[in-house]
Each structure stands twice: as C-alpha cells, then as structure tokens.
UniProtKB/TrEMBL annotation, chains A, B, C:
Binding positions (ATP): R125, S170
Database matches in Pfam families: HK
Protein name listed in UniProt: Hydroxyethylthiazole kinase
Gene that this sequence comes from: thiM
UniProt pathway: Cofactor biosynthesis; thiamine diphosphate biosynthesis; 4-methyl-5-(2-phosphoethyl)-thiazole from 5-(2-hydroxyethyl)-4-methylthiazole: step 1/1
Protein source organism: Rhodococcoides yunnanense
Cofactor(s) needed for function: Mg(2+)
UniProt keyword terms in alphabetical order: ATP-binding, Kinase, Magnesium, Metal-binding, Nucleotide-binding, Thiamine biosynthesis, Transferase
Length: 269, 269, 269
C-alpha cells in the first residue's frame, strides 16, 4: 500500500545490470514455451539453461543466478525437479520465481504450486485468475474468475505474502504487490495475449531481473517494464500474431534506457 | 459418394462462430508442434490448453470444448493421458480429433492409435499414408505408401467410418470422408510441407471447428478451408519456409468471410 | 594435422546430394530445439522424424538415413532411447551424431555422453567447452572453460578420436578434427549465439550431411559450411534475434552452389 518504492531510475539501472552481467537462468518450464522462453532471455540480455531433470535440477540451481519454475505442462519428473530446484535455490540464496499456470482451475497442479510455496519464492508471477486460484486453494480467496482483472487480485496477492516476497499479477495494468508496496504498470500491447508463452517469458525475465536487482520488488517491476516496452515497440511494426512473436523478441533486444524513459508507465499513486 | 453436404455458406458460418465463441481446445500433442499448435489456435480465434498429464487429462476434457490427440512424439505418460482424455471427451459428448502421426510406419504407435479408436473420434485427421496405415493395421487396407495421394486413401478412410464420424486426408486436394459424403478441397500452398507442424495445427483447428459447427463434417471441412486460405495468403508474401511459418500464423488471423468466399475451392462434384 | 582433405568442390557436391536425396534424420533432441531442428532440416533439404521413445527408437534407426542424439534436456526415457537408437544406427551402419550439450558442466549427462561413445558416433558436434568437458570426463583434458575457443579444444578433440570418427567444435572459427586432418571454417554470424537451438540445428544437419557424403569429414564440414553461409545471408537482412531466427531458416533454404562458392571460408592451411 502507500507509495511505490520503485522509480524509473531503478528500472533503468536494473536494465543496465542485465546487459552487463548476463545472468544465467535455470528454467523448468512447459513444452509450449520452452523455446520462446530461451529466446526471450537471450534477446533481453540473459542466458537460459533448461535443466529440468531430477538428476541435475538441484545441482544446477547452485550454479545458475536464478531459477524459474513454470507449471504449464508438468510431468511427474518435472514436478520432482521443481521441488528440488526451488529448495536448492532457497538454500543457496538464489532468487526463484513461481509461475503457477492454471492454478485454481486444475486441482492437481494447484496442489503442486501450494506445496512449492514452502520454498518461499522470491516472486509469484501469474495472471489475476491464477493469483486468486492459488490464494483460494489456501482458503484465503473467493476462487477463480477467469475474466479477473489484475486489480481484482490484489487482496489475494497480499494473502500470499507470507510465502512469497512479491506477487506480480499481469494484466492491462500489471499489479506488483509486496509488503507495504503496490506498483502498477500500464502500457504493453494486447497482442501479447494473441501469442502463446509471452507470460512464461515474463516469468523468466522476472527471475533474471531479480538476480541482478537490489531487491525482488525492483526485479519484478523492471521485468514487467521491459516486456511492456518491448511489446509496444513490436506492435508498431505489425498487428498480426505470427509476425508479432518475432517482433517482440526483436523488441526485447531493442529496449534501451531511452525507450524505457519514454515508454514506461509507472503508477506510483 | 453423392453430393457434398457442405456449402461455402456453412464454412463462412462456422468461421463466424469460431471468432464469436473462442472455443477452448485441450491439446495432447507432440513436442515438435506444441508451440505452433498453440499459436495457430490463438491466431485462428480459438484458445489452447496443453493439458496432457495423466493426473489432469480426463478432468480437463470435461472443461474444454474439444480435445486433440496427436501421436507425434508419444511418451508412456502421454499415451495414458490420451486414453483418459479421449474417453472423457466421449463420455462428456465433446468432439475429439485423432491425428495418428506415423501410423502404419511405426508399429507401437499404430497399435496405440487403433486402441484409441475405441473411443470413437469425431474426426481422424491425417495424411493419406497415415489413413491407409491405420486402416491397414485393422486389416482393411493394402498397407502404407509414403507417396500416397489423398484420393488413393478414400477406401481406407471409408473402412474407418465404423469408428470415426469423419476421416480427413490432407494432400494437394484434401479429401474429407463421412457416411455418404465425400468433400474435396483444393487450394492451399506447397510451402505447408516445408514447415513442421502445419498438419498438427490443422488437427487442432479441426477440433476447434467441430466444437462450434453443426456437425463434424462441416467442422472438418471448415478447418481445412481456413488453413488452405491462410496458406495461400501467406505464400503471397514469401517463398521461403522460415518467414512462411510466421506469415501462415498471420494468415490464420487475417482470414475473414470475404477471403473465404474468394479463395475456398470446394469440390462438390 | 597436415592439409585438409575437404575441398570447396566436396562441399558443393554434398549440398547437391542433400537436395537430391532428401535424407531422413531421426532426431532425439531437447525440448527447446525440437521445432527449430525440424524446421532447419526441412529448410536445408532433409526430412526430420522426432522418434525418441524407447519403444520405437531402435527400430526407426534402421529406417532413417541418419540419427542425431542431442542431450540438451534428457529425460530418463530419452536417455534409454538414445542408447537404443545409437546402438541400432551403429549396427545398421548408419551415421549418427552425438551433441553432448552441457558436457563437462553437468556430471550426470556427461556420464551419459561418455557411455554413448561406446556406440562410436560418426561425429561429435559441440562447442569447445563441451568437447573439452567430454574429453575431461575421460581423463584426457584439463576440464571445462566456458569461454574456450574452438582452437583451444583441438587436443581434447583428438583424444576423442578413439571413439568418434570426427570431432567438430563450433566457434568463431569452426574446427573439424579427424584422424590426420584438421579443417577450419570461418565466416558465419555472431547472431547465431543470440538464438537458441542454432547449434542443435547444426548437429542435425551434420547427421543429414553424413548420410549423403563420401565420408564423415566431408559431411561435418559441409554441414558447418551450409550453416555459416545461411547465417551470413540472414544477417544481411536483420540485426535482431527474433527476425534472425526466421531469416536463418530462409537462408538454409536459399543456400545454393553459387552462394557456397562465394561465401565458404575454408582454411586448408
């Protein structure tokens, strides 16, 4: 609540760190998004490593700078790997991001997501329905509304702050919630909804940014800002989804300080 | 046999329903195609959900509007999920489409495909060789010819109508076969063969169209028409496969009533 | 050592064979690259088949013209399939390529890669660090240096020639090492490093080329030349990674004898 604790200067500084430090992000993500997530990290200035088998997941979390756990198409082995990698990340003090795809709508994976909260993610990144679904599975929310707006999920997000440092609900206006803070980000492009895996890519960038930012609040906001600006740039060149997907990756690469200062719509009210 | 039971007006009406109702398609598909299938559904006006684990596959089939089962890269878990999801779709009266990739050429998956026929798919969507391979595995065909043309597979297709409502064999001229009906569709682009997963995307669109069409024959024909027209539009802008893939997705989005009326080549002879 | 045994004419002749014979490549590859690898093979003139389950892997190796085993995201089932397919390829006298992604850095998969050497790959295709990591795991190298240049890995590559016919280390200058031969290839584009799975695609093309070349040395060099030239053509049209990915696939399709003669930088010194 109260005023934002993130400034445009914070976002610009985080972006500079991303380009200078090229953080390595271990991704345990779904089969739909895995190529796009890797390309999004590369385009934005990070390095991907999709190490998601139970034999290597924990060990690699000690090597990577951050970990993404995305539950889009969980296999039994990947769920086991997610437990191991998130526990190892917590143990090693590395940031890790939980993207609870489908939480609330699908009981089995919702339960997996709830269990993973025991490893205290740095950020839960999701859409509003998933935030509400995850909170609801813990008895703190009124359940899932698939047409929920991010603003509707703020109470549910707050109820999750006993487990996660930050909860970020993406939408027309992204809402990033921490203890005593609520940052809203406008902008972006409706075309993001017409291409699969853009949300998953945002989760991966959130992990990358958390590893090079002073705190997870700045990391989460900087990632959402980078994606919003990249999508706006991309939407200037096309209105169709196939070409937008490539243009969005180009946009992630194009984003620089000047574009961030021009296009980020940070609501610090 | 006899006259076609699908008109251009039927296709146009189905396309309008697709855009208005945005059907949710559960996809159990191969790792090669999974991203492209999701993007193709989004571009065409449907919504994808890749729920393919045994824990959730049956439950989600009750929520989705249609189910796609594609056997391109089957794992043991995915085969189990395919059984569960197709049975649940049948139970719930939801249309489901079987895409028996590699049937005839690969014995194990051919047997899986034959077993799945027990759940009575709305549509078997395949190329001519796969239709003949699947029929052959049931003893009703002369076996696989990898250079088979769709016209060559009509007898094999008919032999499968005791299990499937419709059998659609894609090729230079698509042949969609039902009880007492044979619809042929020309057009399309040879570039579809130069990009992986375009056939898989057609299977997913067939599932989507079946869920919003008066019957599976119209659904299957409308899906093939949508893909053919999108590919023709795409081929106007490029002759190379990398850029064609994005242009094809753009084309799926671009297709409208006017383009359907101009470009669909329905053979009702 | 000594002079190269590959000429520009050899590369041109191999490329002509690729287009004429359209070899079928069985790919056991990672989830990140699987779509891109299939599209790269199609664009270059080969045919992909992603048959990677234990039930079918060995049988299909007898049908395919070549086999690729890539350890990017190995599951337990895929490791088993890799053992079966590589053994079957060796048995059938088909070329097979090992791409030991992450070898040296990740102990479990490094051990898998070492075990697969027992099936005597035609080519080990990797970056310099992975070549050194794989050799190091057999006690013949000083270990992994993630910033290693291909030239640094030549001794490690030579130590692997008791198991592999050819070891190809990609980098700014690719180094292709065989018994008594060392071929260096310049050119290419730095953008290849900004898009995921370009190295995996090179591994698949190496398998394809080995199946239609007089020997594995020519096959490996021709594949690296095809990729280098395609990337140079692609980099003429864009400097951004999202559009480069599509342009690279277009470039693989565009490459012809004239472009090979103009752009291949073969170092026969």
């Amino acid at each position: 609540m109260s005023a934002s604790t993130v400034t445009l200067d914070d976002i610009v500084a985080a972006h500079r760190q991303m380009r200078e430090r090229n953080p390595l992000v271990q991704c345990l993500t779904n089969t739909v998004s895995v190529q796009f997530v890797a390309n999004a990290l590369l385009a934005a200035g990070a390095a991907p490593a999709m190490v998601d088998n139970p034999e290597e997941a924990a060990g690699f979390a000690g090597i990577a700078d951050a970990v993404l756990v995305n539950l889009g198409t969980p296999t039994a082995a990947q769920v086991e790997s997610s437990r191991l990698a998130s526990a190892a990340a917590r143990e090693a003090g590395k940031p890790w991001v939980l993207d609870p795809v489908g939480a609330g709508g699908l009981p089995w994976r919702t339960q997996v997501a709830v269990e993973l909260l025991a490893n205290h993610p740095s950020v839960i990144r999701a859409n509003a329905s998933e935030v509400m679904g995850l909170a609801g599975a813990r008895g703190a929310s009124r359940g899932v509304d698939s047409s929920a707006r991010a603003a509707d999920s703020v109470d549910a997000a707050r109820s999750l702050l006993d487990r996660a440092e930050i909860v970020a609900a993406s939408g027309d206006v992204d809402h990033v919630v921490g203890q005593g803070s609520l940052v809203k980000l406008g902008g972006g492009s409706a075309l993001l909804q017409r291409v699969t895996a853009t949300g998953c890519a945002l989760g991966a960038l959130t992990a990358a940014y958390c590893s090079i930012s002073p705190n997870a609040l700045i990391g989460a906001v900087a990632a959402h800002a980078h994606v919003a600006v990249a999508s706006e740039i991309a939407a200037r060149s096309t209105s169709r989804p196939g070409s937008f997907a490539a243009a969005f990756l180009d946009g992630l690469d194009t984003v620089d300080e000047s574009l961030l200062r021009e296009l980020v719509r940070l609501d610090t009210a």
